[in-house]
Amino acid sequence: MKIVEQCEQMVKDIYNQFDASHDWQHIERVMQNAKAILQTEPSADTKIVELAVLLHDVSDSKYTDSKENEQRILQQLNISEKKQQIIREIIASVSYNGGNQLEATSIEAQIVRDADRLDAIGAVGIARTFAFGGAKGRKLYDDQEEARHNMSVEDYRNKQTASVTHFYEKLLLLKDLMTTEKGKQMAKERHEFMVCFLKQLKNERDGEL
User: Fold this and answer.
1) Distance CA 102, CA 94 (A)
2) Which of 25, 20, 76 is nearest to 51 (CA)?
3) Domain 3-205 classification at class level
4) How far is the C-alpha of 89 from the C-alpha of 35, rounded, in Å?
5) Average pLDDT, whole number, for the chain?
6) Structural domain boundaries of the chain?
């Protein structure tokens, strides 16, 4: 069995325990995004990118307090310790962390991060935001709540902000944080769709029918 297929079998059940914002379908979409970017980045190691995509959320701090899943699966794959460390570093650089992100220093890290962030914006990103908010019991919107900037990782993770606030704290910022040319290109339309959605949402809330 190929290593990527082996990894896929090992992670699928983990993701299917998460809510719809981070389930197996999320991984499938991120993989699709990554493969689209890989076509324009021939120097990238495809296998490293695919393994990092499959593993990037198995130990997500929103769902678990440990790196046990990530470490266990990496150790069971037939890859060198050096490649395991490369994948760990890629995964660590994916998280936004309230703007406290680590630098994506390799083309593989840039591809995985862009691919994941593309799934956080556009129509799917809107759906995922409200799916996560619903799973966590968050308000749809809160007009008294101001979007936070210059947050610590702890503030970003721990405060239960309304779903619409999340657009202003993160999602609307992602277009300008894309690192690959293909990622930047793909992000433009998705960003514009979110802007239109938020405008329409405000019109409906304000009774401007």
Assistant:
1) 8
2) 76
3) mainly alpha
4) 20
5) 93
6) 3-205
Per-residue model confidence as pLDDT tens digits over 141-176: 999 998 888 877 777 777 789 999 999 999 999 999
Question: What is the reported pLDDT for 65?
Answer: 81
Our CA dihedral for 177, 129, 198, 166, rounded to 10 degrees, sits at -60
What token pair was written down for 166? 């999340």
Report how far residue 42's alpha carbon sits from residue 95's, in angstroms, rounded to the nearest whole number. Answer: 25
Q: How far apart are CA 38 and CA 120, in angstroms?
A: 19
Angle between helices 181-205 and 107-118 (to 10 degrees): 20
Of the candidates 17, 10, 24, 14, the one whose C-alpha atom is nearest the C-alpha of residue 75 is 10
Predicted TM-score (pTM) above 0.90: yes
